[in-house]
Structure formats: C-alpha cells, structure tokens
C-alpha cells in the first residue's frame, strides 16, 4: 500500500447513504430516452464488455476496422481497436456534412459582452477547421508534433483543437488562467514548437493579458518557433515579426485557403496530452488517443445526457480542463449536437447571467460544477426565477461531490423538479464518465451513481479487499475502458506506479467512496495530495514549490480544508526566514506570489506560520497532523514524528 494514501480525504462529509432518498425521473423527461431498460443494458455490457464496446464503436465511422477490440497483452499498456484507422474529426465534423446536419448549428458562441454572438453550422465549422489546419501545416506542423493552445473560451479553441487532430498533431491545451511559469513548464515538457494564443481574454470586464504571458513563457524556450495570435480583446501587444503571427492575417494568405483532408490515423495514435496535478512532483501529461477516446466520449454523452438532434447543449467547463475536452468539444460534436459556449463567468455582471443565456438560447441540457451551483445558490432563488427556464430538460454536475443541499436546490429551483440531475464522476485520466446515471435511473442527492455500461467499480481497504457496502474505502475501477489514458507522456514507469501498482489489476482512482446497497457510489474525496478547489485540480506539491520561490519562505506545506462553496480551500503552513514577521501584508504578498507563479485559482484561503513543520524522521511532511490542527481535531498518533 502506498504510504502517501491516507483516509479520510479532505472532502465534505457524506451523509449516510439512504436508498429511500432516491428521486424518480419525471415521466416526460425520459419518454424518448435512448436508454430505457438500463438494467438490461448494464447486464448485457458486463456480460461481454469488449463486444459491448465494439457495438458502440460501430455507431461511428472507421476507414479501416479493428483486428482486436482490446489488446491487453502488455497491460497496463492497454490498446483499443488495434489495427483500426479513423480520425476523431472524421466523426466529430466530416461525417455530419454528408447529412442534414451539414446546415445545423454546431456552435453558438456568446461573448462576455453578450452583444457579441458568433454561430457556426457544421459546414462552416469544417471550413474554419480546414483554415486553421492549413495554416498549421504551412508552419511545418507534422503528425505527432505537439501544439500548445493557450486560448480563452472563444470559437478558435474549437478550431485549434480540431485542426491539430485533423492533421494528426497532438494538442496540449493549457488553461488560460495559468501563469507564464506554469505555461513555460508545460511547453518545455511537451517540446512544442507552436503556441496558439490570443491578445487577451475578458475576465469580469477586464483584459487578462494572455499574449504578454506567452511572451514571458517562450522568451527562453529552446523549442517554440511560432506563436499564432488570435485577436480577441483588441489589446495592444508586441509582435515580433520573425515568429509572431496574427491569425486573422494568416487566414488571408493563399496557404490558408482550400480544403484540408482529414488524415486517417491509427486508432492508437495520440490525440492530445493534458497536464494535470498529481500527488507528487510536476504536473503529469495525461495522454489520450483517437480511437478509444472517440468511442468513449461519444457513447457516454449519448447515454447519460440523452443527446438528441433538437438539443442545445451547454457545458460550462473551460476547454483547458478535461471536461472541456471531452464534453464541450469532442463528445457533443461526435453526437452532432448544437454546442453553446459562453465566454464569461456566471456572476458577472449579475448572478443571473447563466439563466439569461439559458432563456435566450433555449438551452436543453446544462452541465456545470458544484462550486458554481453553490455560489449561485447563495445569491438566492430570485435571480433564477426572473428567467423562463422551461427549455431545460437535463442537468449535470462534475468536478467534486454535489452535496445533497446543492443537489436539491439545483433540482428544484433550476430544474423545476422535472429535470433529472446527472452527476458524473470521472477524471482527466479516465477521459470519459466512469460513475454516473442515465436519465431513466433514479437520482440520489449526493451520490454519483453507477459505473458506466461495461465498467465495474469497487471500494477496497488498504489490502485491496472489498469492504462492506456503506463502508468508506479506496475507489478502484475493475475493467479497462476505451477512453482510458494510455500513459503519462514520456513517463511510462510513472504511469504504472501511479495507477496500477497499488492493487495489481485494478485502476487506482485516488478517491475514497462508499457503495450503498443498491450499488450507487457516493464519492467522498481525494485520498492523496490532490486538492479540488472549486472543481479545479491542484497538487499540494505545485503550491509548495511556488511558495518556496518566495524569498521569505524557508519551508511550506499546503493542505485542503473543507469549504462550503469551493468544496476545498487551500491552507498553507509556512516556515518563514529568520527575522520575517507574519502579518496581513505578508500573507497578501504570498497570495500574489502564488497567483503570479502558478495561477490565481491556487491562492490560499488561510495561512499559519509555525516554527517548524511536523515531519517523519525521514523528513516527510505529515499533512494529516496539519489538517487535524487546522480543524481543531485530535492529532492522532505522533510517535513517528521527528521530535523537532
Ligand atoms: C472530470 C474531472 C478528477 C477528480 C476525481 C474526484 C473529483 C470529479 C466528481 C468528483 C465527486 C464527481 N471528481 N467528478 N468527485 N463527484 N461527480 O473533474 O477531472 O480535474 O482530473 O479531477 O475530481 O476527486 O478524482 P479532474
């Protein structure tokens, strides 16, 4: 058992699972649902998961079919649909052009200034993707090259991701709220030569200077040759004519014109890498591939959110996170849906901005995060009641546990007691939902649901033995699934150690959970040094290394503490350099330092300034003791600590 893992996680307390709390879906919500008899489908899929996944894959197009559905001969390096050829863009865009969907809206985009609206049919989306792909090709981007995308929530992020996929390049999207240091680390690690960014992004009425941050990040980069800049805010930026290119100018060049064929790639060819925080060390580049990821995101979105052609789908996630990849860009387009994307935040200028959008654009399916629900809940129902939300059909949640109180508010106030709530538990690594519901299943406030078709999950103790229902333990997944990560880019050994070594044959999720007697899973929280703050995934190691670059800091430890709105808040214990006195001013300085070197999302809520940190004799920080102290709880067994 990995020593780093200790129960319980920092997540909010989970109420005792009680099956009688189940909320049956309203009959009108499930009339036309794709999955009616979910028990039968669950049984069928589990009887032969490979046959099940093959049947789902057959709903999509392949230029060459597979020899094997699942090749587990080198497990845990699983390979799906081996021998097959396709491209996720063939299925997300091209195939729709041969049907009536050609003229259907693929994307409705609304700016923070809501007078700014841009819409794209599948036909025009295809043209935009071709243009971007032609430009990338002309810049020398080839199959297998990594392109870094650092863009706000604007349509070009769709074009850029799809253009990379189209030519077989690997995209690495970096959340546009990360600092230049964090961006530089990701560019260097991935060795990308091209960066796609914008002059700036709008954040609550102010410009966030993306291009300046890129300049700082690539100043010393040995790899980056070109930076493509999308004009978004109209901000003045410095353009180095040798390697900075305005996107709108490049679009006018002859090289940008004309169609660009969609490269047919091997099902196992990489589609993207996405950096995410782990327990230790630098963020890891999770790698996903074309074939399996395509099948997994397509099938899970179709089943759980019951996508139909008349739907208008809104996933509020940023493209910089896995949710944006799987369920803002790829999953919905694979299903031929109409995607809605909004540039701004839910509370600016007023806390009814999202409801205004739902009403104005007739959103049917709305997928968001618990932290946003809790934030909006605090502003009161009146903001919601101002708007006609009768278009809504389904609601969804992701990123952290949706506590029963927030579940009930979302269900009653936003969903008017008629919209099923689909809580989706999954990870950057899993690529697709793993534990969730389909609309025909009863919802249980606070529970995520059941493993997706073809998957089984279990709750085990530290020896890998399944615990009794109702008991908390480590959540593991039993079967490989098509959209699973293939490795940590360039770090195969770390991949095996992180996910597959603790319990041989089982995928270690890093979460703790309980299962109830009906087979519903209740997620509790992380058991490792990952903190989910407002649904954003942060590693204590990253926050600590950011603090250690501050001149007044000698040692630092970061932990997550329960927080009513954010789920968790960052708390830091900092040992200061001799002679430095802690005060408000210093705390603010440390916060600003973290915002500048990592990201504003990582800013600590609270600090303590001890003389020394609790450590084991081998020098490992014992976060359990810090957590107990911060919460005023019993510190437990201290006998293994270093006396100092
Ligand atoms: C999709 C995403 C993964 C971690 C995961 C867990 C937490 C995600 C959840 C949830 C409870 C849910 N998590 N969804 N916890 N209920 N519905 O968030 O990916 O950023 O990689 O984070 O998020 O702790 O292990 P990622």
From TrEMBL:
Could you confirm whether the keyword Chaperone appears in this record?
A: no
What is one GO cellular-component annotation here?
A: cytosol
Q: Which domain of life is it from?
A: Bacteria
Among the GO biological process terms of this entry, one is: acetyl-CoA biosynthetic process from acetate
Molecular-function GO terms, alphabetical:
acetate-CoA ligase activity; AMP binding; ATP binding
The record's section on Gene3D superfamilies has: 3.30.300.30, N-terminal domain of ligase-like (3.40.50.12780)
Q: Which residues form the Acetyl-coenzyme A synthetase N-terminal domain?
A: 43-92
Keywords for this entry? Acetylation, ATP-binding, Ligase, Nucleotide-binding
Pfam families per the UniProt record, alphabetical: ACAS_N, AMP-binding, AMP-binding_C
Look up the EC number in the record and give it: 6.2.1.1
Tell me where in this chain the AMP-dependent synthetase/ligase domain is found. 101-481
- Map out region (Disordered) in residue numbers: 1-25
Q: By its UniProt entry, which NCBIfam families does this protein fall under? A: Ac_CoA_lig_AcsA, PRK00174.1
Q: What is this protein called?
A: Acetate--CoA ligase
């Amino acid at each position: 058992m990995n020593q780093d893992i200790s129960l319980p996680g920092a997540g909010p307390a989970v109420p005792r699972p009680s099956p009688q709390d189940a909320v049956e879906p309203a009959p009108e919500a499930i009339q036309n649902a794709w999955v009616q008899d979910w028990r039968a489908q669950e049984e069928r899929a589990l009887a032969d998961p490979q046959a099940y996944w093959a049947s789902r894959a057959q709903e999509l197009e392949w230029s060459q079919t597979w020899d094997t559905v699942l090749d587990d001969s080198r497990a845990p390096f699983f390979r799906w649909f081996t021998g097959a050829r396709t491209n996720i863009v063939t299925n997300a865009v091209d195939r729709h052009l041969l049907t009536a969907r050609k003229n259907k809206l693929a994307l409705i985009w609304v700016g923070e200034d809501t007078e700014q609206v841009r819409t794209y049919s599948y036909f025009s989306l295809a043209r935009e993707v071709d243009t971007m792909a032609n430009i990338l090709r002309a810049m020398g981007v080839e199959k297998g090259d990594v392109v870094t995308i650092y863009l706000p929530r604007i349509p070009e992020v769709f074009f850029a991701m799809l253009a990379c996929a189209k030519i077989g390049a690997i995209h690495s999207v970096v959340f546009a709220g990360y600092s230049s240091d964090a961006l530089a680390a990701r560019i260097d690690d991935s060795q990308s030569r091209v960066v796609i960014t914008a002059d700036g992004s709008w954040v609550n009425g102010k410009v966030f200077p993306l291009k300046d941050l890129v300049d700082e990040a690539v100043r010393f980069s040995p790899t980056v040759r070109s930076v493509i800049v999308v004009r978004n805010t109209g901000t003045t930026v410095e353009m180095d004519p040798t390697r900075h290119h305005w996107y709108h100018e490049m679009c006018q060049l002859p090289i940008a014109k004309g169609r660009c064929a969609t490269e047919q790639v091997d099902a196992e060819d990489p589609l993207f890498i996405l950096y995410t925080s782990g327990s230790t060390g630098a963020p890891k580049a999770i790698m996903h591939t074309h074939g399996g990821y395509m099948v997994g995101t397509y099938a899970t979105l179709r089943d759980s959110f019951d996508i139909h052609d008349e739907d208008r789908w809104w996933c509020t996630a940023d493209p910089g996170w896995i949710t944006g990849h799987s369920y803002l860009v790829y999953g919905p387009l694979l299903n031929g849906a109409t995607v809605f994307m909004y540039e701004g935040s839910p509370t600016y200028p007023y806390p009814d901005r999202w409801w205004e959008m739902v009403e104005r654009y007739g959103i049917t399916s709305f997928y968001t995060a618990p932290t946003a629900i809790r934030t909006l809940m605090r502003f009161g129902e009146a903001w919601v009641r101002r708007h006609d939300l009768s278009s809504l059909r389904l609601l969804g949640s992701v990123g952290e546990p949706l506590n029963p109180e927030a579940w009930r508010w979302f269900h009653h106030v936003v969903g008017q007691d008629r919209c099923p709530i689909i809580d989706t538990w999954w990870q950057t690594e899993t690529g697709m939902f793993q534990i969730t519901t389909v609309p025909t299943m009863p919802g249980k406030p606070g529970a995520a649901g059941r493993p997706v078709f073809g998957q089984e999950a279990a709750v085990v103790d530290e020896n890998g033995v399944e615990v009794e229902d109702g008991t908390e333990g480590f959540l593991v997944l039993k079967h490989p699934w098509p959209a699973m990560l293939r490795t940590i880019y360039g770090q195969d050994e770390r991949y095996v150690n992180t996910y597959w070594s603790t319990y041989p044959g089982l995928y270690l999720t890093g979460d703790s959970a309980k299962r109830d007697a009906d087979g519903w899973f209740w997620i509790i929280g992380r058991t490792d040094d990952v903190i989910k703050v407002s649904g954003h995934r942060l590693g204590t190691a990253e926050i600590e290394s950011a603090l250690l670059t501050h001149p007044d800091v000698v040692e630092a430890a970061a932990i997550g503490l329960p927080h009513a709105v954010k789920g968790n808040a960052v708390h830091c214990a900092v040992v200061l350099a001799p002679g430095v006195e802690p005060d408000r001013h210093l705390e603010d300085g440390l916060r600003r330092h973290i915002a500048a070197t990592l990201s504003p999302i990582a800013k600590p809520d609270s600090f303590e300034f001890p003389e020394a940190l609790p450590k084991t004799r081998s020098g490992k920080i014992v976060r359990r003791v810090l957590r107990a102290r911060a919460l005023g709880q019993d510190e437990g067994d201290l006998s293994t600590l270093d006396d100092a």
